[in-house]
Amino acid sequence: xxxxxxxxxxxxxxxxxxxxxxxxxxxxxxxxxxxxxxxxxxxxxxxxxxxxxxxxxxxxxxxxxxxxxxxxxxxxxxxxxxxxxxxxxxxxxxxxxxxxxxxxxxxxxxxxxxxxxxxxxxxxxxxxxxxxxxxxxxxxxxxxxxxxxxxxxxxxxxxxxxxxxxxxxxxxxxxxxxxxxxxxxxxxxxxxxxxxxxxxxxxxxxxxxxxxxxxxxxxxxxxxxxxxxxxxxxxxxxxxxxxxxxxxxxxxxxxxxxxxxxxxxxxxxxxxxxxxxxxxxxxxxxxxxxxxxxxxxxxxxxxxxxxxxxxxxxxxxxxxxxxxxxxxxxxxxxxxxxxxxxxxxxxxxxxxxxxxxxxxxxxxxxxxxxxxxxxxxxxxxxxxxxxxxxxxxxxxxxxxxxxxxxxxxxxxxxxxxxxxxxxxxxxxxxxxxxxxxxxxxxxxxxxxxxxxxxxxxxxxxxxxxxxxxxxxxxxxxxxxxxxxxxxxxxxxxxxxxxxxxxxxxxxxxxxxxxxxxxxxxxxxxxxxxxxxxxxxxxxxxxxxxxxxxxxxxxxxxxxxxxxxxxxxxxxxxxxxxxxxxxxxxxxxxxxxxxxx
Length: 596
What we know:
By secondary structure, this protein is an alpha+beta fold. The chain has 18 helices and 18 strands. It has helices at 9-17, 22-72, 76-79, 121-131, 137-145, 159-166, 190-193, 213-217, 219-223, 236-252, 314-323, 358-364, 367-377, 379-389, 415-422, 431-442, 468-484, 559-570, and strands at residues 94-95, 101-113, 151-157, 173-182, 195-201, 206-212, 230-231, 257-264, 270-276, 332-334, 339-341, 344-346, 355-357, 446-447, 463-464, 498-507, 514-527, 534-541. Strands 1, 2, 3, 4 and 7 form a five-stranded mixed β-sheet that branches.
């Protein structure tokens, strides 16, 4: 950059020769340069102002164009004179395996009021409380008078109730169209379906969302019309039979509640799943805020409740010793007792002799014999085997409630734990866990996961837990338990059944230990034993048969007769032909005949 000096030499020399003052030349140069700079800055400022004015002009022009477009556009719902619902209340149907509708939508109405349009607010409040007894007329009157412009009266009313409100002829009372969920079969399969509730709501529509059961777990599937209906694996007629028989059994056995599960041992499909007490999903009750949640009819005893299920676990011990070659069916063990583990001792519920084979230990249900087998297995190997059977993890069934049924196992798997777990104490699982594990016992040793979907792909490639040879031996044991063991009352004339009973003292949550007079009884039945196809698990909470002189609480006297009645009723529907080749047995000491 070349700079021009403020005192140009040529002009300075010329000024000196002429006797002029050189400082004047410097002043002139300074003024000239300052003037040039001012002109330059002025031009720049003008350019910036012009650019800013152009930008403002463009922006305001765009805004004006957008306003003109919006002002000239008429929405379709305004053009037709109707208001479009902004909330999607469509929901696909739920059906059983045969296409019978379990849940669908129906049109209904809501009732709301604009208080400022009412002529006589108190009169309207009294009239509405007469039609809807749950309303408090005084409270409604206060709501009409406190300055509100909108008041909900009922978010769902029947056509009959709508007509009654309409006949009042009061201005300011309005109706809003909406759809609601209908369960045409009432209480049947209530714990499977769960129920729905309203999400976002408007006067002209309301969003239906799942609240529990498959309605919640498949909420996204059900709200998308492209997915179609949700086809479950359950069979409604069989579900109905099982629920009715179970209800009769709970009543006759004076039980607090009960559950029943019917599962296909090869596909894992749940043909029925019942829990009592139950509820009507059309009028789903509120969740309890205090106390024991299992008291609520919303509690799913089959998939959500976890219990010590007693001797039903013994067959798992037999499965492991047979598979690992630790013992054979004919291996003889000393069952004299009791067995001592520090201050704890293990004994049988009554004297069973001094020596029994492995098969006899299962048939006669010896705690001591099973504990001795478990000692031969060892703690770590026992834990690994139960893990393979799925008894230490969640079942994975498509019910949100089942996600809270994590099995309870000891923090330290000691020798005492190994012994007690072998016969079903010190470990708590759900009845659905037992149904899953027994499916593996009788289906050839394949681990099958339970599912509520007819077309589930869960069990395409099942994991092998043990060999088919071991499964065949276990089937023979289960059959003998029914023929001559603790489940003799389950022997039927026309159908061959295998199974295992379990009677466990109920855990006392108010203090350490167990109740002296309260039990959980379970019977796991597999049938038909020629080619096992189904597992039925019946569990009763605190049963007691008082029809005889000495009240009985064991599974053989409580859960077994209920399960037997269920099998007699559902076997023909399942297409199981009567087995005319089996020996005929007289069913002695039959406790129940739960027939309509």
